[in-house]
Write a structure and sequence with these properties.
CATH class: Alpha Beta
Number of strands: 5
Number of helices: 6
Shape: flat
Helix content: 40-55%
Length: 207
């Protein structure tokens, strides 16, 4: 039986849509409040989506899970995915702090791939949240993943994804090294831009 034909599929997808709406609204409030209090908008743009069913099924298949609703909920942690793109490196950690301090969500887990990049060179800060939704006098929690990164990190991740999509599973070592070199260049750019940003702030403070 196809996953979309399974009994609980419509209800589960409805809960994902409710949680997406709730998360989108709460994040907008948190970020607007930060901008109001600090007279500064650290966010270049945000994107929120519900993962396509085809993509979720492929992910379950890669991990050798049976294609069921229960496994979808249990093992696909980014059915609701949010990407927040920031201007500077310090902005990433400011936004992480804002979200973690909010009483609107529960933090299930976090991964700092900026301090500890993946072997591929991927860098970003991941937060896994449990978003409360209220249904018929009861509260349920739906998982969502937030990725917070700089413009440079997002640029590298986007291009790396497109390149890997065109390559076989076993990537030639020379290409792997070249991708890592690009990741290091982007990391150095973030450091330089952060230094310039701090210099500008000191200049503004002194004048």
């Amino acid at each position: 039986m196809k996953i979309e034909e399974q009994k609980d599929f419509p209800e589960v997808m409805l809960k994902y849509h409710f949680a997406k709406m709730r998360l989108e609204t709460e994040l907008e409030i948190l970020l607007k409040e930060y901008e109001f209090n600090n007279h500064y908008n650290p966010v270049e743009h945000t994107k929120i989506r519900i993962k396509s069913l085809d993509s979720a099924i492929k992910k379950l298949e890669r991990r050798n899970y049976e294609i069921t609703i229960d496994n979808l909920v249990r093992h696909i942690h980014d059915m609701i995915g949010v990407r927040i793109i920031c201007s500077f490196l310090s902005d990433v950690y400011d936004i992480v702090g804002i979200i973690k301090s909010s009483k609107q969500f529960l933090i299930k887990g976090e991964s700092d791939y900026i301090q500890n990049p993946k072997d591929s060179g991927y860098t970003s800060y991941h937060l896994n949240l449990l978003v409360p939704i209220h249904l018929e006098e009861k509260t349920e929690y739906v998982e969502a993943e937030i990725q917070i990164r700089t413009v440079a990190m997002d640029c590298w991740a986007s291009l790396d994804h497109k390149l890997r999509y065109k390559l076989p599973d076993q990537i030639p070592s020379e290409l792997e090294h070249s991708m890592l070199d690009c990741a290091l260049e982007m990391k150095n750019m973030d450091k330089k831009m952060q230094h310039l940003y701090e210099t500008v702030k000191r200049f503004q403070k002194n004048n």
